[in-house]
């Protein structure tokens, strides 16, 4: 989890000097954060050195990553202040950022805002910089998703443009430097910089680099690397322009909201922000930031049940105010207004968690469970264990393969077509090997056989695990389904061995072959043209019910040579 350093005396002053280290540690525990270290407890501080508090923050509480956020949240929690109301104040002529079509090649999105009449001190300035670093490392995924640029608005002129240019055509003086450089030179210059070099790979190989210009074609920033020396912020800055570029629109809005809500406190009119209009190549216009409160409906019955307390709706509403959540009671419902600082609240259970913190976990009454229950295995797991045991006793080795795979392994390499309504696709896969949730166990076992070719043949491997399939009828749009798969790899195709294993498994489940019975529940093989298998060497496994109706359970067959080649196998399977 992220850790922040906060000036001890400054925070204690803000909270009314009612704490020592021990009592503050208890307060942190009650609020859901942790005081990891108080530097004054280590021994004598150096002359002029101020004691620092090192506090661990939950990874999803981006609003607590700076002094402003922690002090404000604790002040509200202690009922020393009310939660602020954040306002977007329209400007007579709002600043505009126009996006060029070429930006879609690198970082397609940009948002912005203006903090007007800001009063900065050395401590506030450092907190502003530190928050950006924390957000870059955490929410922004080390600048790959989002990159923040901040500028002294009085040193630049709007309207602004966000473009993607050839690196040789970009010329500016980077922050805290004196040399004017083009894009290529910037990459070379920061190769040895311990801070910036970690982000060079994001755009190094791109044919165009993202760049932000003002109306006079002066470079303001080269995201995601560095801002311009010309527009840098100092303690004398009074008006701050924030521009944030991104590949993820949700994350960039969250980042902007956190940044402006934390530091709009220092504006002439506290907690107000001026908007910035963004115009995209297709003519669509958007105004940022979006600080409107989200509304989430819940009930006292649900919240009380989750937390284990008995509070009226009005009492719950008062408790939620301690967590900076406004709530209105309407009959049996509680409408909770979620501020822009709380993107971590996604479901009703998140509100229940805040209610538990506000009430106090240590105050939740201990209750004896009077429900009499008898433990029993889940029917699906019980069935899976029966199948596993039978296959293992037959001399087969169990494998456990990854639930993510490449799209080709699941379709093209098995000579299958993707019909679009079967597979769950990952939005931002880390590699080509983790593009989708598998819908079959076969690709993983084929890769297992491929990686174990050095062992003597035959290889008998099996797996009983879940696959994931789309299902529009369920809430999440997808569901797990338990599958079993077995492979026999040898110097010759031995269909009868796999068929024999199938027969043993079905007998263990009290299902016999149609060869042995002509009534009751039984199974049979039905010849089918399955592209994954050799022509004439594939079949569907059919379950025949007592009423004569049938259900397809799976398939069996000898794999097509093309499939074997796709998985670098030379022996029949």
What are the main properties of this structure?
single chain; 573 residues; alpha+beta; eleven-stranded mixed β-sheet; four-stranded mixed β-sheet; 27% strand; globular
What does this structure look like?
The chain is of the alpha+beta class. It contains 14 helices and 28 strands. The strands form seven sheets. Strands 4, 5, 6, 7, 8, 11, 12, 13, 14, 15 and 16 form an eleven-stranded mixed beta sheet that branches. Helix 10 (379-393) packs across helix 13 (495-508). 32% of the residues are buried. The mean pLDDT is 90.
Outline the fold blueprint.
Elements: E1 3-7, H1 8-14, H2 21-31, E2 34-38, E3 52-56, H3 67-77, E4 87-88, E5 95-99, E6 109-115, H4 122-137, E7 146-152, E8 160-165, E9 171-172, E10 181-182, H5 183-189, E11 209-213, E12 219-222, E13 226-227, E14 240-246, H6 249-263, E15 272-279, E16 285-288, E17 294-299, H7 300-307, H8 313-321, E18 326-330, E19 333-338, H9 348-359, H10 379-393, E20 397-398, E21 404-405, H11 407-410, E22 436-437, H12 442-451, E23 459-470, E24 478-489, H13 495-508, E25 512-513, E26 522-527, E27 533-544, E28 550-559, H14 561-566
Parallel strand pairs: 4-15, 5-8, 5-15, 20-23, 25-26
Antiparallel strand pairs: 1-3, 2-3, 6-14, 6-15, 7-14, 8-11, 9-10, 11-12, 12-13, 15-16, 17-19, 18-19, 21-22, 23-24, 26-27, 27-28
Helix pairs in contact: 7-9, 10-13
């Amino acid at each position: 989890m992220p850790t922040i350093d906060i000036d001890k005396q400054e925070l204690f002053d803000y909270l009314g000097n009612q704490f020592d280290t021990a009592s503050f540690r208890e307060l942190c525990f009650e609020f859901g954060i942790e005081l990891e270290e108080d530097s004054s407890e280590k021994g004598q501080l150096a002359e002029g050195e101020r004691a620092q508090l090192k506090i661990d923050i939950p990874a999803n509480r981006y609003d607590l990553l700076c002094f402003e956020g922690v002090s404000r949240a604790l002040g509200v929690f202690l009922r020393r202040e009310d939660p602020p109301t954040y306002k977007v104040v329209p400007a007579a002529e709002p600043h505009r950022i126009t996006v060029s079509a070429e930006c879609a090649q690198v970082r397609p999105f940009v948002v912005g805002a203006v903090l007007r009449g800001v009063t900065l001190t050395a401590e506030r300035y450092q907190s502003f910089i530190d928050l950006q670093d924390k957000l870059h490392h955490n929410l922004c995924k080390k600048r790959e998703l989002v990159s923040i640029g901040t500028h002294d608005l009085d040193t630049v002129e709007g309207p602004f443009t966000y473009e993607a240019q050839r690196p040789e055509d970009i010329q500016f003086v980077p922050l805290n430097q004196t040399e004017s450089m083009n894009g290529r030179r910037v990459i070379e210059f920061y190769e040895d910089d311990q801070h910036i070099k970690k982000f060079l790979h994001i755009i190094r190989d791109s044919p165009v680099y993202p760049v932000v210009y003002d109306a006079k074609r002066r470079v303001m920033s080269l995201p995601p690397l560095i801002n311009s020396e010309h527009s840098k912020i100092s303690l004398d800055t009074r008006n701050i322009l924030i521009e944030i570029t991104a590949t993820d629109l949700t994350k960039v809005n969250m980042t902007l909201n956190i940044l402006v809500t934390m530091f709009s406190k220092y504006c002439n009119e506290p907690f107000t922000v001026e908007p910035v209009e963004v115009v995209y190549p297709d003519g669509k216009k958007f105004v940022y930031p979006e600080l409107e409160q989200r509304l989430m409906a819940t009930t006292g019955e649900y919240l009380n049940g989750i937390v284990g307390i008995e509070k009226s709706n009005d009492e719950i509403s008062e408790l939620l105010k301690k967590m900076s959540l406004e709530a209105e009671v309407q009959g049996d419902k509680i409408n909770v207004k979620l501020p822009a600082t709380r993107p971590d609240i996604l479901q009703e259970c998140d509100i229940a968690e805040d209610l538990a913190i506000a009430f106090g976990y240590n105050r939740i009454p201990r209750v004896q469970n009077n429900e009499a229950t008898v433990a029993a295995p889940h029917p699906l797991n019980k069935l899976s264990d029966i199948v596993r045991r039978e296959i293992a006793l037959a001399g087969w080795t169990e494998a456990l393969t990854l639930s993510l795979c490449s799209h080709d392994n699941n379709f093209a390499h098995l000579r299958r077509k993707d019909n679009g309504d079967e597979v769950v696709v990952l939005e931002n896969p880390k590699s080509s090997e983790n593009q989708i949730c598998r819908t079959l166990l076969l690709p993983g076992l084929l890769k297992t056989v491929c990686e174990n070719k050095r062992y003597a043949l035959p290889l008998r491997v099996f797996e009983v695990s879940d696959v994931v399939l789309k299902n529009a009828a369920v809430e999440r749009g997808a569901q797990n389904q338990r599958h079993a798969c077995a492979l026999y790899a040898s110097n010759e195709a031995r269909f009868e061995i796999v068929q024999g294993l199938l027969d043993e498994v079905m007998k263990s489940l009290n299902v016999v072959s149609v060869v042995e019975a002509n009534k009751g529940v039984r199974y049979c093989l039905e010849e089918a043209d399955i592209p994954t298998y050799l022509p004439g060497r594939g079949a569907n496994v059919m379950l025949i019910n007592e009423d004569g109706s049938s259900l397809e359970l799976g398939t069996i067959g000898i794999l097509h040579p093309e499939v074997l080649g796709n998985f670098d196998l030379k022996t029949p399977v």
